[in-house]
Amino acid sequence: MLASFLTSTPLLSESWRLCDLANTMPSQGFVAEQTGSLGYLAFSGVQLVAGPDPTSARNLEPLLTSTNDLFSPLQHQIDGEEEEGQEPVMVHAGLLRVFLSVYSNPSFQNQMLKILEKSKSIVISGHGIGGTTAGLCALWLLSYLQSISSTISVLCITFGSPLLGNESLSRAILRQGWAGNFCHVVSKHDLVPRLLFAPLAPLTPQLHSLLQFWQLSMTSPHFALLAAKLPDESKAEIFHTVLASLNGLTQAEQGKKVNCGFSPFGNYFFCSEDGAICIDNATSIIKMMHLLLLSSSPSCSIEDHLKYGYYVRKLTLQVLMRTSFPPRELPESSYEAGVALALQSSGIACQDEHVAPPAKACLKLERRTGRTPNLNCANLAIKLSKIAPYRAEIEWYKASCDQSDDQMGYYDSFKQRGASKRDSKVNMNRLKLARFWDNVINMLENNDLPRDFRRRAKWVNASQFYMLLVEPLDIAEYYRTGMHRKKGHYIAHGRERRYHIFERWWKERPIKEEEQKTRSKFASSTQDTCFWARVEEAKEWLDNVRDESDPRNQARLWSDLDNFARCASELVERKEVSKDVVAKNSSYCLWVRDYEELKSQFVGAPQFPSIMDREVVS
């Protein structure tokens, strides 16, 4: 669908036209154009003629160490946590410096402001090194637009772009739902998108000459004659090194992870003289890169980097003329016929006994198994309706706790619960709901749900309602079982990852006008879902300040206590808490009484308004 969309609209041809124009203007670094509400931005692939070769080394560096929060959403790829053993998001150091130098250019920043003011959609493109600059620009722009809740759409189209970052970058982009915003056009034999799979340090002199040839050829086609001056031995050495590295990656035993440092992300649009295929599975992308290169030669792999204009024109004409090139004998199965047509579109001959069979297997691997994301989402909605009784029973339990004569409220009743059937049933429902929502997150991170799933109001609201209702019970169980003494307090050491994710979804939603109105009665659920965890920490501070003899430590504890008392009092004043918070025997009210009593023993200490006499509005 993406391939058909790109080739049947002006997006692909216009993006290449601007890339070609940018390549002839290396001093400027980029070109911009506005067509109605559609803004185009294209980066030159000729940016480092006098500098170090960005493809001559494979050094990666963390994306978030020196970029001043330009890519802050990717920092939360684990949503507030670092998974054990997982690398941080990393990108090629040299390519990152190219983007940062462009980004710091006042001309670029002024141009981006103009585009943002006039555009509903923005297409960012680049050829070669310009493609990686375009990719980083798109990631920055997506991060910025997310921070301001903008509805401007972004599409990044690259032509023959080198790989940019590691597998953690690919995962972070998937988690953000941005993979569909990237389309990497790769010609059948082009060596550049495959270069960083190989160890390139021993080939630095040859790569320097090769990069200079590419850049000079982009600047002016007349320099293409320089190709004859590149020694055949150098071409062959680079070609076979890359081919051997790709062969090693694809021949690894199934299930064995081979880490070359770099990983593809987004959609790869492999084009040939016979058509194009679009692939978004990283394993399939690497295998297809290898198989297509097997049918190439050193000279062809170098010259193909300069032929994207030819491929784009060829694809556009094929769509306009509605021509196709089916094999003489198509299989009866529509699926097998589709695989055969895709194989031919990739430029691989069906008669090639060495390449065609593994290429077919690769294309079959790319075909999504099981339900499609939309069907998964529909099935998930059915499951959501089936767990509604569990949620309803917890709501009933909360209402009965709030009306109980012991006046402890929802949180403390569950924390101090006995072995009754009712309490056990509520605890079981809490665990069942947790399993459901953890499964939702796993499906989303495995790309089994629609890319806009986390922005759909149905699921944002459902996850928020779940968090408001159930997280207080998780906090109660955490402190009831003494986990805070083993692991530390809940917020820093015990909070489940799903709550970090749902909190971010809620913050990124469009805020409705009625949500900003002042409350006239207490909320049905406390809006700060970690409120009771903060109360538990404050209870410990109160115990510590009684026993503390060091004046400095005592002053620090009093500062923490005063800050919490002030913030909690403001929440109550704004009625952003449930009425169980102000129940007579709730942990919070007991803490307030202890705090005020201890505070009164200090001469001249500030006093906070008591909540003991506040009327609870039901």
UniProtKB/TrEMBL annotation:
What compartments host this protein? Answer: Cytoplasm; Nucleus
GO terms of biological process kind: lipid metabolic process; systemic acquired resistance, salicylic acid mediated signaling pathway
Ranges for domain Fungal lipase-type come to 68-197
Keywords annotated in UniProt: Cytoplasm, Hydrolase, Nucleus, Plant defense
Q: One Pfam family of this protein, by short name? A: Lipase_3
Main localization of the protein?
Answer: cytoplasm
User: SUPFAM superfamilies of this UniProt entry?
Assistant: alpha/beta-Hydrolases (SSF53474)
InterPro entries named among the record's database cross-references: AB_hydrolase_fold, EDS1_EP, Fungal_lipase-type
What residue stretches are annotated with the EDS1 EP domain?
A: 392-601
What are the transmembrane regions? none
What GO molecular functions are on record for this protein?
A: hydrolase activity
A GO CC term attached to the entry: nucleus
Task: List, alphabetically, the PANTHER family matched.
Answer: LIPASE-LIKE PAD4
- Which protein is depicted? Lipase-like PAD4
Please name the source species: Manihot esculenta
